[in-house]
């Protein structure tokens, strides 16, 4: 069983985060395939594209010049966009494009949680607060 992120020490969280980063080449291949697949929602593709534009934009919530922290906000936002895309895509389509045995949704959820763990408290509460409001206002 995976230890809850809030119970982790910073060093342990960094180690888990580093281990998850080994999935990046496979995750990038998956995203490339999903973005080309006509069975995936155009809206979800557009959201992921907008997040990618944010990531390459030099003006960030946390500047990329700050080692490690500068990339964490980018990874968190990408994780949210990817989770949206994964959760709204038919599981058979995901399985067709994902080449590993691990559950891709669980991997990306853990990556999002760990990214959130490393964000400064004010930024974390801002992002989570907005996400909570969006979730509450969304129809079931």
Strand content: under 5%
Helix/strand/pairing class, anyone?
mainly alpha
The number of domains is 1
From the N-terminal CA to the C-terminal CA, the straight-line distance is 29 Å
User: What is the mean pLDDT?
Assistant: 76
What's the multimeric state? single chain
Quantity of strands, as a count:
0
List keywords for this structure.
140 residues; mainly alpha
Fold topology:
Layout lengths: L9 H11 L3 H13 L5 H15 L12 H19 L3 H7 L6 H15 L2 H17 L3
Helix pairs in contact: 1-6, 3-4, 4-6
Describe this structure in words.
This protein has one domain (9-137). The protein is globular, with a radius of gyration of 15 Å. The protein is mainly alpha-helical and 140 residues long. It has helices at 10-20, 24-36, 42-56, 69-87, 91-97, 104-118, 121-137. The chain is 69% helix and 0% strand.
Brief overview:
This protein has one domain. The model has no long low-confidence stretch (mean pLDDT 76).
């Amino acid at each position: 069983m995976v230890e809850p992120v809030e119970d982790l020490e910073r060093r342990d969280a960094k180690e888990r985060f580093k281990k998850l980063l080994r999935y990046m080449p496979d995750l990038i291949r998956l995203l490339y395939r999903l973005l080309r697949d006509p069975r995936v929602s155009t809206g979800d593709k557009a959201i992921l594209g907008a997040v990618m534009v944010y990531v390459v934009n030099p003006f960030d919530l946390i500047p990329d010049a700050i080692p490690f922290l500068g990339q964490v906000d980018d990874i968190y936002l990408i994780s949210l966009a990817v989770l949206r895309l994964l959760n709204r895509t038919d599981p058979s389509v995901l399985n067709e494009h994902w080449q590993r045995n691990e559950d891709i949704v669980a991997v990306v959820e853990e990556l999002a949680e760990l990214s959130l763990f490393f964000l400064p408290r004010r930024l974390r509460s801002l992002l989570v607060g907005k996400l909570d409001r969006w979730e509450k206002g969304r129809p079931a």
